[in-house]
């Protein structure tokens, strides 16, 4: 079921409750799961990024512009589940150009995720790149493309944000096999995408190995996201590609482009293949 009128489930999921210096409580909601009550990896990375930026803003003060995420790298040590979580941050370095903060997420006293947030200032955009090789996707989904709102079995998160699959790369929904490539579009319900949603967008499509006949939960082990710009309002265009699938592991490279055709996020992860049924 889609979000109700006026609701902003992504911003709500980013909510942090202070719990002492550089510490927060957060709630991992059922809306952002990938099955089995496991919290979505991209959502958790965005949440940790938000915590790191919040601490840096307080540490830097008002004399320095509010920091943007430039790079975020995380190790997924265990699979968090729906429910409360505790987040702590440790500032490694502050600077006028680059600052670094380490962030950890615990549940029940157990460390689940560890991330490093590198922060700075993203370009305002407007200039033409000297070189670009970006996915050839239209700015908006074509008529008839499968949306999570209408096809909740297509990808997770149908109640949290809208994800639409490119008809040329949704063959696994029809039981077809093909190359491990998935393209599509994503946007949050009730608001425009921001840099935190761009972080999430680097891990929002169904796993590419679904096209190899390997459906199911594909646990991310390590995920690194590079932010290249603040997204313009509207849809984000996405492409996920696997280069090698072997020995129980697979990689995914993401490219995220905004409605103006600007690269806003690149991501790379290594994950475990879903277990065979």
What does this structure look like?
- With about 280 residues, the protein is mainly beta.
- About 10% of the residues lie in helices and about 35% in strands.
- The protein contains 3 helices and 14 strands.
- It has helices spanning about 10-15, 40-60, 195-200, and strands at about 15-20, 25-30, 70-75, 85-95, 100-105, 110-120, 145, 160-165, 180-190, 220-225, 235-240, 245, 250-255, 265-270.
- Strands 1, 2, 3, 4, 5, 6, 7, 8, 9, 10, 11, 12, 13 and 14 form a 14-stranded antiparallel sheet that branches.
- The longest helix is centred in the first third of the chain and has 20 residues, at about 40-60.
- The two termini are about 30 Å apart.
- The mean pLDDT is about 90.
What is the element layout, followed by pairings?
Blueprint: H1 9-13, E1 17-18, E2 23-28, H2 41-60, E3 68-76, E4 83-93, E5 99-107, E6 110-120, E7 146-147, E8 161-165, E9 181-188, H3 195-201, E10 220-227, E11 236-241, E12 245-246, E13 249-257, E14 263-272
Antiparallel strand pairs: 1-2, 2-4, 3-6, 3-10, 4-5, 5-6, 7-8, 8-9, 9-11, 10-14, 11-13, 12-13, 13-14
Helix pairs in contact: 2-3
Features:
mainly beta, 14-stranded antiparallel beta sheet, 12% helix
Low-confidence stretches: none
Order of helices and strands: HEEHEEEEEEEHEEEEE
Q: Structural class from helices and strands? A: mainly beta
Subunit arrangement of the protein: single chain
Tally the helices: what do you get? 3
Give the percentage of residues in beta strands.
35-45%
What percent of the residues sit in helical stretches (DSSP H or I)? 10-25%
Rounded radius of gyration (Å)? 18 Å
Give the averaged pLDDT, no decimals.
91
Largest sheet composition: 14 strands, antiparallel
Shape: globular
* Number of DSSP-assigned strands: 14
In whole angstroms, the N-to-C terminal distance is 28 Å
């Amino acid at each position: 079921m889609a979000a109700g009128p006026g609701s902003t489930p992504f911003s709500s999921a980013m909510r942090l409750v202070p719990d002492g210096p550089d510490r927060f409580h957060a709630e991992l909601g059922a809306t952002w799961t990938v099955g089995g009550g496991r919290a979505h990896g991209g959502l958790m990375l965005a949440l940790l990024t938000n915590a790191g930026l919040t601490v840096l803003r307080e540490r830097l003060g008002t004399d320095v512009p509010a920091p943007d995420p430039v790079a975020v790298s995380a190790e997924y040590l265990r699979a968090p589940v729906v429910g409360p979580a505790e987040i702590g941050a440790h500032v490694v370095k502050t600077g006028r150009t680059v600052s670094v903060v380490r962030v950890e997420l615990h549940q029940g006293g157990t460390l689940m995720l560890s991330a490093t947030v590198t922060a700075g200032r993203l370009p305002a955009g407007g200039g033409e790149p000297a070189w670009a090789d970006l996915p050839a996707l239209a700015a908006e989904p074509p008529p008839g493309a499968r949306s999570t709102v209408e096809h909740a079995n297509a990808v997770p998160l149908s109640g949290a944000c809208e994800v639409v699959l490119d008809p040329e790369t949704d063959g696994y929904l029809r039981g077809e096999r093909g190359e491990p490539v998935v393209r599509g579009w994503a946007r949050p319900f009730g608001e425009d995408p921001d840099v935190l949603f761009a972080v999430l967008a680097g891990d929002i499509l169904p796993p590419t190995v679904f096209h190899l006949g390997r459906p199911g939960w594909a646990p991310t082990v390590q995920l690194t996201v590079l932010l290249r710009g603040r997204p313009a309002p509207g849809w984000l265009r996405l492409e996920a590609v696997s280069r090698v699938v072997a020995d129980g592991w697979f990689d995914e490279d993401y490219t995220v482009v905004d409605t103006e055709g600007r690269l806003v996020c690149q991501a790379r992860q290594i994950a475990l293949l879903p277990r065979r049924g």
